[in-house]
Task: inverse folding
């Protein structure tokens, strides 16, 4: 088939010089004979060539990944590149011959490096095997020497015995005969002992050889099993991607014309490269669809949907602010293979996996928890609302807004040390004060308390349960969030949804939120049901979609909420509802007629150069800014975190290990004290002295009357201690 029949031949690539860690640019990729070559954004990194429809897709959707370690690289003409890997063939085109050659050079270098890295483990096992065989040979040679000595001893011993026997036959004095007989007996004993020694040495060598072969077989079996498991996991990941592509291709193949022209063998090979790159939208028949349909009413039927006191809900209030920093040092470009570390951690708690700071961002989990206050003005506005239903809409928007900072933030925050604290004092600027403390280490739990002069108090205790599943990482926050408004007494309670980090093995890391949130106003019994839809290749919905319904105590719906957790949320007042047709599962849906939606919350744009500053928001950039007067346990004073922010990652790794070992030593001492107290009680046949164990400084455990759960709540005293600048009760954790 002619080149004209394949599609356009131009492409544009913008990439650094070959040899750098990452190579990026535009290429045309062959999809099928209907669409020919399609423009795709390619990224070459760590021996993997990934491609996307657009540069923006790098944040969440990888369309395919080619492992160069097992790929064959070839060229067809001046601009073509052909990659073969895993039974698939990929046909790529560059814009010029020069650009094609740059890509080929970069691909060849990446392939050579990937092959070299994958072979690092084998020489070690070969050297171990050679050393073991050399030791066995040395033992055999020493045994041969002993055997030779034994033969000589036996030979000379026999000659000595003959001589002594001859002496006994001679006429000698009785005393001389006695001495000769004694020497003869000693010579016999010597020969018997030397034979026993040789036999013992031979038995030892036989045993060593037997056990050596047994351990060699066991070690080789374990190596093979490990390699097999790694290959199986990687193959499963590839098969999963292949199944997704096959599912997307199925509608196209089924609808293709039976009179399509027959292609030759070369053309069929190109058809193999057809994959998910179709622009057609597909519908996921299995996805959960909302149980309602909304219809916007005409403008003539609209009325005011929000009370004047809380109608303006977009944009930050203009406040005179203290000048705070607007940037942090750029993130260094240190390459590290995530899979090489994570493959040994499958099924473990994330908090128990020792991680280098290369996977971290220079903030602690306490500071990430404080980031929930990024859109605190939503609560300020909610406190002024006269209608509890309108207040519920703003509280729901606040609960969604806390996820907006996570869309690009795939790095892991530092695990706080036991007793570590973090304060955020924005009393003068925004009227609130926030305090977090790490109250437990295993399981890791943090308590958080915020009080605002603008009419609200928020508190929560969050325990993070996380599991690495091989291809993705699930993060499940456990614990309830409480919000109370001072004037009305409205008390709201809700819980967070599950966060999932995808493409742990191959491809670009991206994060998703999924699950349901139920917000309950325990004073009025009004509720809000929020649904975070998981991302799906096949869904026609916008990614990161959130929908919700606000209902009164009787269950009647009053507001519809809609939006995305990374951009905005809107509310629409319901003016009429009716029963509609059945859905795909036979369930009858409710049709809501609503007024035009009103904006509740809109995400602020990221600061300039955010991609080089860990994708921090404006608030996140200020969280680790040094401040005077904070407690000696404050996260801002944590040395490994500060070193990482300054770009000194090697020193940060060493400091992180020192802090963790110091924390382990304190825990061992605490366990020894508890054991000692128990032993004293047993010896005296009494209860023994009471041992309390670790007690947080600023929070204590209380049973919540609404949820019935035991949780840590603020007991007071921190801000008074700060005012007096007396931190003598704080432990030395850094």
Result:
């Amino acid at each position: 088939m002619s080149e004209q029949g394949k599609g356009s031949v131009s492409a544009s690539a913008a990439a650094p010089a070959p040899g750098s860690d990452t190579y990026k640019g535009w290429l045309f990729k062959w999809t099928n004979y209907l669409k020919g070559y399609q423009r795709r954004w390619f990224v070459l990194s760590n021996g993997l060539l990934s491609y996307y429809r657009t540069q923006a897709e790098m944040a969440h959707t990888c369309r395919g990944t080619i492992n160069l370690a097992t790929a064959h690289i070839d060229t067809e003409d001046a601009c073509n590149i052909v990659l073969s890997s895993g039974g698939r063939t990929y046909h790529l085109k560059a814009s010029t011959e020069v650009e094609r050659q740059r890509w080929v050079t970069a691909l060849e270098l990446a392939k050579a490096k990937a092959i070299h890295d994958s072979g690092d483990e084998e020489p070690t096992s070969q050297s171990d095997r050679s050393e073991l065989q050399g030791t066995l040979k040395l033992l055999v040679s020493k045994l041969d020497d002993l055997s030779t000595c034994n033969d000589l001893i036996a030979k000379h011993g026999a000659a000595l015995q003959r001589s002594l026997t001859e002496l006994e036959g001679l006429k000698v004095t009785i005393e001389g005969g006695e001495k000769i007989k004694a020497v003869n007996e000693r010579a016999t004993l010597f020969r018997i002992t030397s034979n026993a020694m040789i036999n013992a040495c031979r038995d030892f060598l036989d045993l060593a050889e037997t056990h050596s072969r047994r351990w060699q077989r066991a070690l080789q079996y374990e190596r093979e099993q490990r390699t097999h498991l790694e290959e199986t996991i990687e193959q499963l990941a590839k098969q999963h991607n292949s199944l997704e592509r096959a599912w997307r291709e199925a509608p196209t193949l089924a609808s293709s014309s039976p009179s399509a022209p027959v292609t030759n063998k070369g053309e069929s090979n190109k058809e193999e490269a057809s994959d998910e790159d179709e622009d057609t939208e597909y519908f996921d028949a299995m996805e959960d669809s909302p149980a309602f349909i909304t219809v916007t009413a005409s403008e003539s039927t609209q009325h005011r949907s929000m009370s004047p006191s809380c109608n303006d809900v977009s944009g930050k209030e203009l406040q005179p602010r203290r000048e705070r920093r607007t940037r942090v040092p750029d993130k260094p470009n240190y390459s590290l293979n995530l899979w090489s570390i994570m493959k040994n951690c499958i099924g473990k708690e994330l908090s128990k996996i020792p991680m280098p700071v290369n996977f971290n961002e220079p903030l602690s989990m306490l500071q990430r928890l404080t980031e929930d206050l990024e859109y605190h003005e939503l609560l300020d506005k909610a406190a002024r609302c006269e209608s509890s239903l309108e207040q519920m809409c703003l509280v729901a928007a606040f609960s969604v807004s806390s996820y907006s900072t996570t869309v690009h933030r795939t790095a892991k925050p530092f695990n706080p040390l036991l007793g570590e604290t973090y304060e955020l004092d924005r009393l003068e600027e925004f009227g609130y004060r926030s305090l977090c403390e790490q109250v437990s280490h295993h399981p890791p739990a943090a308590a958080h308390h915020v009080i605002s002069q603008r009419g609200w108090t928020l508190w929560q205790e969050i325990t993070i349960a996380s599991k690495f599943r091989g291809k993705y990482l699930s993060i499940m926050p456990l614990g309830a969030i409480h919000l109370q408004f001072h004037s009305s007494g409205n008390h709201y309670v809700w819980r967070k949804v599950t966060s999932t980090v995808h493409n742990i093995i191959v491809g670009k890391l991206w994060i998703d939120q999924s699950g349901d949130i139920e917000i309950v106003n325990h004073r009025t019994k009004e509720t809000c049901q929020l649904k975070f839809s998981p991302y799906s290749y096949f869904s026609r919905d916008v990614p990161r979609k959130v929908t919700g319904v606000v209902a009164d105590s009787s269950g009647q719906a009053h507001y519809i909420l809609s939006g995305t957790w990374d951009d905005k949320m809107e509310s629409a007042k319901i003016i009429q509802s009716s029963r509609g047709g059945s859905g795909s599962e036979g369930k009858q849906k409710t049709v809501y007629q609503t007024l035009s939606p009103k904006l509740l919350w809109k995400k602020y744009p990221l600061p300039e150069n955010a991609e080089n500053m860990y994708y921090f928001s404006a608030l996140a950039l200020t969280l680790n800014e040094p401040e005077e007067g904070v407690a000696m346990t404050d996260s801002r004073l944590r040395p490994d975190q500060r070193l990482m922010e300054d770009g000194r990652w090697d020193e940060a790794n060493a400091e992180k290990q020192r802090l963790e070992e110091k924390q382990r030593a304190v825990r061992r001492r605490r366990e020894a004290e508890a054991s000692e107290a128990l032993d004293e009680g047993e010896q005296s046949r009494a209860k023994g002295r009471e041992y309390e164990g670790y007690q947080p400084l600023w929070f204590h455990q209380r049973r919540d009357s609404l949820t019935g759960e035991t949780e840590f709540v603020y007991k007071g005293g921190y801000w008074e201690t700060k005012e007096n600048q007396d931190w003598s009760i704080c432990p030395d954790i850094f």
